[in-house]
Amino acid sequence: MSLSKRNGVYYIDIRSPSGERIRRTTGVSDRKLAQEYHDKVKYELWAIDRLDKPLERTFNEALLLLLNDGKGQKDYATKKRHAKYWRSIFGDKSISSITGEMIDNNLPTHNAKSKEPLAPATINKYRKTILRALSLAYKNNWINSIPYVGKLKEPKIRIRCATNKKRKSY
Prior knowledge:
The chain is mainly alpha-helical and 170 residues long. It has two domains: 3-50, no CATH class; 59-139. The chain contains five helices and three strands; from the N terminus they run βββααααα. The chain has helices at 31-50, 59-70, 76-90, 100-106, 120-139; strands at 3-6, 9-15, 21-25. The chain has a three-stranded antiparallel beta sheet, with helices on one face. The protein is elongated, with a radius of gyration of 22 Å. The mean pLDDT is 87.
């Protein structure tokens, strides 16, 4: 049977027209909703195989590409932090449904912990991270184009402030 129930949640177990076995959770405990999800997945697999329709990829998959690409780089921790932020915004959305306007409207403006406004350079780094993820998706033929997101102006010089704090001597 292609639908089974474990721990109160239904799972699907189907084969694509190419013979690949697909097993995953539906995330629901209602049999009718689980059957609808099963039928939708089965149709999508058929359309991909028979109609040469491209597979719809999620934004989470693009973030995995970004993190795999960034392994071993100096700023990997920053990429992980940015990926976590963008995942909370777009998560399981289809990559092709994300527009430049959506990205622009969801760029962070304030620090989550201290609630202080972010510098334009920091906001541009978040922008750069999501555009890199979409660029990798484009290179893998997951999307047809990369949306445009404008860059914020940054000061031409680095601004530093002198403090009166004493430095610790080691």
